[in-house]
Amino acid sequence: MLGVSSQTIANWIDQGQLPAGRTPGGHRRVQAQDLRTFLTARGLRVPDELIARQQTLLVVEDDPQVGPWLVTRLNATRPDLRVLLAQDGFRAGELVAGERPDTVLLDIYLPGIDGFEVCRRLKARRDSAATTVIAMSANNTPEVRETILEAGAIAFLPKPVDFGRLLAMLEQRTSASA
User: Fold this and answer.
1) Of the candidate ranges 53-57, 107-111, 112-116, 117-121, the one whose mean pLDDT is the lowest
2) 54 compared with 35, residue with greater pLDDT
3) For a 10 Å CB count at each end of the chain, is N or C smaller?
4) φ/ψ (deg, to 5) at 4
5) Can you tell me the mean pLDDT for 99-126?
6) 119 with 151: CB under 8 angstroms?
7) Is 90 exceeded by the pLDDT of residue 94?
């Protein structure tokens, strides 16, 4: 795919130049987003199969009306995005690990693992540290905003979410990663 030997790629990984994980069997695995970033930064050709990847947005919202509403509105206004829904922090973690979303729209007050902890865990893991987190909550206090931004979110949206503002943020994020 890259026109270099597998040993060259292994060297890049071992030298810490190309982020990668390892399977239980010891095989290296590189995420598409990390490979695109690595190739672009070095002026190397990015293969078509890496460019064509559809951006994925994970909505994490426990309210049974708000979550599906956001997914429906986002699907209608941004058909270029693949939109997923998790209704608690644990399921969000599963989807992040399996689906590797580019952006997470994260409610803060969730059953089980709250959004603060979800954000901290996302940012602490090598394979999800680059994931964009946009937090949202009806509890619009300086303490809540400060805590979630310190945990790694790039923005905080008070609820009810200003959908136009959310779309502008998503447009900015998807155009920056294209």
Assistant:
1) 53-57
2) 35
3) C
4) -130, 165
5) 95
6) yes
7) yes
- Decide yes or no: CATH 3.40.50.740 for domain 56-177: no
Rounded to two decimals, the pTM is 0.71
- Looking at residue 142, its pLDDT comes to 97
Domain range annotation of the chain: 6-51, 56-177
Q: Rounding to the nearest 10 degrees, give the CA dihedral for residues 61, 119, 54, 10.
A: -150
What pLDDT, on the 0 to 100 scale, is given for residue 34?
Answer: 86
Q: Give the dihedral of Cα atoms 165, 170, 56, 66; nearest 10 deg.
A: 0
